[in-house]
Amino acid sequence: MECRVLSIQSHVVRGYVGNKSALFPLQVLGFEVDSINSVQFSNHTGYAQWKGQVLTAEELNVLYEGLKLNQVNNYDYILTGYSRDISFLEKVVSIIQELKKANPSLVYVCDPVMGDHGAMYVPENLLPVYKTQVVAMADILTPNQYEAEMLTGRKINTKDDAIEVLDLLHEMGPETVVLTSTDLLSGNGDQFLVVLGSQKIMKPDGTTSSLKICLDIPKFDAVFVGTGDLFAAMLLAWTHRHPEDLKVACEKTVSVMHHVIKRTVTYANELAGPGNKPSPAQLELRMVQSKDDIENPAIVVQAKVLQKC
């Protein structure tokens, strides 16, 4: 059966971030994707210059009303990422509420894009909306460490802290939570990023099963943009294929990430030349060139089970 996604994220003319990071890989994996661009920029903001427009809540409403008038606002998944205006985000909330009412089995995948490395890069008044409205509706949540700490008010210094934060996020609503990157040291030292995931599934008899996992991802010495958006899209795709096996879904998601980033680094270093630091343009994700890895990723990272019950 056809599976349709509504993706509300940023858009860039050149490069890969937001919807540009999500659409191609989802389409490659067989999903029909309708996209609404929260912003439309010439390129991502890591460049020296950028130009573009920001979609208002009114403009978002007009687009959605057009879908409703044609009775084509029927979705299996909603995927949201970057928003920087509180009225826009509140309109997104009302759209999700309406779509979930029309289709109770709809799955909402939320990447709560707010900041990283101890700093917010969206207005601070968005945080209460995420905490009180957005996260409660999410079925799958993909914050980084900083965003998870902001949402729960708890710092993550150890894996036990991370497990506690995962449980707190479950209490807020989502059945599946993946911390897409943390500063925790892996068993392999500081050359790896640690990803932690947790899934709670309600069984037909009313009982709940839960699983907590962690994965060590090799680090690359470069700054990438659009990787979080790609992660959320791939987690949507692979949890769709493996709805009750977060371990496999995360292994495939992380392996796609590894292949795309490795190909990107190799290409960027070749362009920059020996001893030179690649530019933001050279470090744009090699998405099209990674089509085969997106469709059928060779597993390069094995997840470790931390808890299962």
Overall description:
With 309 residues, this protein is α/β, with parallel strands linked by helices. The chain has a single domain (4-308), classed as Ribokinase (UDP-N-acetylmuramoyl-L-alanine:D-glutamate ligase), CATH 3.40.1190. It has helices at 19-28, 57-69, 86-102, 126-137, 145-152, 159-172, 227-241, 246-272, 291-295; strands at 4-12, 32-41, 52-54, 77-80, 107-110, 115-116, 119-120, 140-141, 176-182, 192-202, 208-218, 304-308. A hairpin with a 5-residue loop joins strand 10 (192-202) and strand 11 (208-218). The model has no long low-confidence stretch (mean pLDDT 94).
What does this entry show, briefly?
With 309 residues, the chain is α/β, with parallel strands linked by helices. The chain is 39% helix and 23% strand.
Observed structural traits:
309 residues, alpha/beta, UDP-N-acetylmuramoyl-L-alanine:D-glutamate ligase, 10-stranded mixed β-sheet, two-stranded antiparallel sheet, globular
